Amino acid sequence: MGPTVRVIVAEDQWAVRSGLVMILDSAPGIEVVAEAADGEEAVAAALRLRPDLVLMDVRMPRKDGISATRDLAGSGVDVLILTTFDLDEYVFGALRAGAAGFLLKNIEADELVEAVRLVARGEGMIAPAVTRRLIREFAGSPVAPPAPQAAQPPAELAALTPRELEVLACVGEGLSNQQIARRLGITETTTKTHVSRLLAKLDLRSRVQAAILAQELGVV
Predict the structure, then answer these.
(1) pLDDT at 129 over 80
(2) Which residue range(s) make up the domain with 151?
């Protein structure tokens, strides 16, 4: 097993927070290093302790989850957003602010643990039940997927290699690195390298943003 994944749980409801902490602390290879009852506490603890990720509720007092996510952008600490609603306007803002993933609070315990591990490995996570709806809303088309682009692709896409475009398409489908590696017949390490390079070329903060861009541009 790899290094321990260090997590901060930010949730204003004590009972919910305690349940999340219990689930994560009981999972092998995951350690909750701090708890926060609002966004200000979450940001302060994250900058002090430098965990691998913050499990962040959207609606919290003093500073909400989206503001806290924006404050942590560029800090090297990933944010995994938790919300009660599958189409919450705060979620779109959180993804734009650089959140690495988005989960519903009714997620099963094993799915929560897996999501934390995926994000810690550098892979984004959007609750499967709402991925398509979320992408459509993010792209500004709540009724139907975006129409095919008549114009030339953005210059950034032109900078991608054919293999990186293939990887971007797979990311847009929500595939993990392991699944991409199997589909393209490459190693998981090579897949990680391609993902890192395409994120840098496209100036994106997270894999989730890459997935949304792939859907918007019809790469998938």
Answers:
(1) no
(2) 146-216
